[in-house]
Amino acid sequence: MDHPNLYRSCDLPGGALDWGVRSAFVRAKSAIDPSRLETTTRRIGEEIFRRAEAAAPSILSQEYWQTRGMEWLTRDEDLKLRLFRFIEALPSLQTPEEIARRLKETVDRNGEHGRPLPLAFQAALSYRRNDSWHAGLVAWAARYAALRAATQFICGSTPREAIESVLQLRQSGMAFTLDVLGETVHSDRVAEELQQLYIRLVEQLSLAAPGWPAAPILDSAPWGTIPRVNVSIKLTGIVANLDPADPTAADAVLARLRPILRAAMRHGAFINIDVEHYAIKNVTLDLYQRMLSEPEFSNWPDCGIVIQAYLVDGERDMAGLIDWARRRGTPITVRLVKGAYWDTETAEAIREGRPIPVFTEKWQSDASFERITRMMIDNADIIRPAFASHNVRSIAHALALEESSDLPPRTIELQMLTGMGDPLKRAVVDMGQRLRVYAPFGQLIPGMAYLIRRLIENTANESFLRQSFGGQVPIAELLRMPGPEQSVRMAKSK
Q1: Phi, psi of 214, rounded to the nearest 5 degrees
Q2: Is residue 432's pLDDT more than 80?
Q3: What is the pTM of this model?
């Protein structure tokens, strides 16, 4: 296949491919042999694991000790959950005495502490009421530890700090998308402030971006130039109490969204629309399509959307986006994720007596991710694929599909989270892949909910990162095709 001609876009709006070129994709779809694809997936996955092992942190590095601390924490599920609740409550605790007392209650399980506790926790256990000096020491240590954890997952609280953080990412061979923390705003004043913050971030990052060193792998793709500045936004952050049933909600969202997109178009930046809870998934997808169908934005390719593979609706949602994008005629970027609200979605559905919207087994989400990956790559003429995962099998499968479809290198983009799986990040960068890091931005207090989610994800029993780099599951098992027997194999391997 002639790659330069495949991505010839000078005559077409937004880099869309003509129907003659599209037929090449159709031929490529049918030509992929499943057994050969699986062999390629395993080969790529084994290479990723080898490179990740070689990229492991030094014992002298902070990253090494953060990883060891996380491994220690995962061995005691009850203590882990108690500490996470303490971290979540920490911003609301006003005095050193309150902090010391709460931490003592957190680690003191009626005298039954299980394994020996680190010195910091032992100091908290020895706290006595009215001992202000001791309380001050414990509070300082607790705040310091929480702030260190936050800086592992959150890239700054001011535009200046964000610029410094994303520049460090680029110097490490990684692109970024900046995500402003905070969900479900209840005040219209706060929502308007967030809208202005999004615009300010686009403007200030765009002023700094021309001075960043060139990085061809990050800044170009087979279809052309990729914007250096990339910002992810949540629709629940720019209007107060977004209610899908409210007939006025859509107009309110669009009115707040247009100035952000105009700023991005003016400065050559990229905007990604996040999809959050299931309750607003459909309205988010609808508003995304409505906005980009408006004449002002209809030829603009630099606005993306998220599809969540853990949703039973995921494949249907992807098919709808593909159909709409073809009718629109301008390519769109789709960020495929597993999903971050599994526990909440499941609990709320059970409580409300409605069908559970997410797959109930992890392997089902993994399999759904692979099916949607195939849909995206099969339609790479109109869908610019981005795959957000720390699961080596999922990453290797996407890369294998790209290779098996005879697409140009870096047609797909890989995405990962700040503060998680750094050896894995270094491995895919070393392989010459384009990697974008999802970089949360904001104050500690609104960031605590995000921090807790990341800590839980990073230490969950089924976490691929834990199984891969902190567990004993053989690589061959981790790279097997997702199936109903997967959970049984994993359990036996531990």
Answers
A1: -60, 140
A2: yes
A3: 0.85
